[in-house]
Automatic annotation (TrEMBL):
Subcellular location: Cell membrane
Homology family: Belongs to the UPF0104 family.
Pfam families: LPG_synthase_TM (PF03706)
The protein, known as: Lysylphosphatidylglycerol synthase TM region
Organism field: Haladaptatus litoreus
Keyword Transmembrane helix belongs to the record: yes
Gene Ontology annotations for the cellular component aspect, listed alphabetically: plasma membrane
Transmembrane residue ranges: 61-83, 89-108, 120-143, 149-171
Top-level taxon of origin: Archaea
NCBIfam families: flippase-like domain (TIGR00374)
Statement: the UniProt record of this protein carries the keyword Transmembrane: yes
Keyword set, alphabetical order: Cell membrane, Membrane, Transmembrane, Transmembrane helix
Amino acid sequence: MVVGIRLLSVLRALSGNRTQRLHLRLRPVKARTRFIREYLHLRVRSYSTEINLVLENRRQIGLALGWSVIGWICFCLPLYASFLALDRHISILLPLFLIPASGVARVIPLPGGLGGVEVMLGGMIIALTSLDAGTAGGVVLLYRLLSYWGILVLGGLYSVYFLDIGQLVHIRRKQTS
């Protein structure tokens, strides 16, 4: 037993030197990780505080969720209307799937206006329905006219009405005369 205790004390002394050397080597790493640990601790605390603030008012969360669902349905209605305009009756759920799924094409790095989203949408329409390529192209074209160009024109008319561009033109004519 005395020999065993002596052997353990020798092993401990040898390992103590190695442990101390390892501790000295890891001191700079420990200092860096302390900063990261403190930063992460603050971020997690901030996140949990924000979650608690959000959960305090469940009525507003429900209201925001309701408006979000209404917004997505309104965003998908032009595609549904495009199908109906070409006398193609589909489930209302199909546009609710197609619109977000075609957004995956935005991840592909293409120059703007090249039509990546439209090609993806047309391909998915062909794959998921019994439409031919020409009809699917017509649906996509109508959808883009309704969802993009229609909103652009309505926004322009809205701006003219509320900014009263006619008055601005009249004021500039007086200034140049």
